[in-house]
Amino acid sequence: MKVNEKRKIFGLTMTRRAWNNVLVYAILIIMVVFWYVAPPVKEETESGIAEEPVSGNVIGLIPDDGNLKSIQIDQLTLALKDQQWRCQAPCRLSEKAVQSVAGNWLALTMEPTNQAAENLITEVYFRFAGGEEARVELYAEPELMIRLPNQQQNYKVKEFTASQLLGH
Question: Could you tell me the residue ranges of all domains in the chain?
């Protein structure tokens, strides 16, 4: 072995390969220590909903920016015209029921959950200004739940029943 292949650091003489192994293991140990001392922070998506559900974190479904233009529930379409929610024909709801259903969706709050949603009631489509569209799924069991398919996340609905949201 040649003399220039050995390195002496802090009084220890080892080959280059041995020092490389020491450095690799030292870095791995430092990474493990930092992983457990300071775990990575979960970043938020554009909508402000955390990637990992946090129990007790109540959030709203629709932002208060006034960009919601229509709500479609099965064959029922509610559209915002002249600051009033109107039902497009054919419509089975009264004028008062249309305002109530739209107001309920706008006021809906929910809490993240890890429970599996079962018994799909319907899909609801929201159309916003600028052509953006969002879809949510409404489930009946184990309790009234909303699933956001794009985020693969389930939420428990607070303060509303299925009939209040669907106009039945």
Answer: 3-37, 59-166
